[in-house]
Amino acid sequence: MTRAGRGKGEEKPRKLVGHSALISNTEESPVSPSRP
């Protein structure tokens, strides 16, 4: 239970951060994830 919780907790924020960084690097807009 500790391993699963840790993996899920670390994968969720990591994926979100990665996505945000990708969008920021591609569109250069950290405040425009849903807006075009």
From TrEMBL:
UniProt superkingdom: Eukaryota
Compositional bias of kind Polar residues: 22-36
Region (Disordered) residue spans: 1-36
Protein name (record): Str. FM013
